[in-house]
Amino acid sequence: MTFDGLSRALRSNKPLLRDLHTAARLRLHLFEHTDAVRLHDADRDPIAGLTVERYGDYAVLSAYQPEIVAQRREIAEALIELGARGVYYKERVRADLRRHSSQNLAPSAPLWGVAAEPQFVVREGSLRFHVRIGDGLATGLFIDQRDNRSRLQERSRGANVLNLFSYTCSFSVAAAVGGAQRVTSVDLSGAALTRGNENLELNALPREQHRLLKADARKWLERAGRRPERYDQIVLDPPVFSSDGHDSFSVERDYDEMTRQCVQLLSPGGCLLAILNHRGTSSDQHRAIVLSAANAMSRTIRRLDTALPAEDCAQSGPAMTKGLLLQVA
Questions:
Q1: Residues 206-215: pLDDT tens digits?
Q2: DSSP 240-274
Q3: How many of the other CB atoms lie within 10 Å of CB of 67?
Q4: Which residue from 285, 200, 275, 206 is spatially nearest to 234, judged by alpha carbons?
Q5: Burial (CB count within 10 angstroms: exposed 0-12, middle 13-18, buried 19+), residue 303
């Protein structure tokens, strides 16, 4: 974001540019602490079906509706006027992604402007992360979980931490920078764990204190319940659906049981950060799942707090992402 870009938007007679400015100026203060910010949210801001995220000098435009797909070049041009060096495009479809060309949905070249480096670093407070904004639909960092990473960082000194569906290990980095004694990151993707290891190295974290395990998180949890090790902090942040060609994970089918297994693995006083990315499950239903898990495992609930997404992301209505922080006695 640039002040010059915002100033031009104020003087513009283009409704699209002014709407983007209206949303972006509310986030301007966030750039003091991070250079990865959601400038416009599809569920919250003036232009329905459009999400725009800023990573350093580059913008990522995500289209959720046909109207946004049709306007993508006009939107990209407006984002250049707001100060982005380059704009990348992602088309979000609610369908089996295996039936779509990844290059069509998320071209590797920018839609407008200058190309970014294949991988570059963004900051988030004291944390640093690699991102790849031209490498498929995901960038390597979920901006909406910024505040939850901060919460975990603050609670992790001396802790034994478990991060399930760890992806590129952003939660693991937050815990480790926060002083965790040991962090275990579990993900089925070897490529994601390689990027996770790069993020640990980027933050100068001692590799010997942090286990990266290539495994099916659901099956790993079943085995972990039979072992004596317990965890002070657990992060459960699964995708809605995943498959390795032989087996699959589904939030609707598997989330309840995995939540119970996580509660079982908590040490006395331990906390579970339970995140759910599913529009079909309400916040009340998510809370009921977590409460039921604690009761099923006969754990006394010390506290149950809402773990809201970052302020630049949707926090009300039928928002897809829900978060709860459960502490047990």
A1: 888 899 999 9
A2: SEEE-SS-EEEHHHHHHHHHHHHHHTEEEEEEEEE
A3: 12
A4: 275
A5: exposed
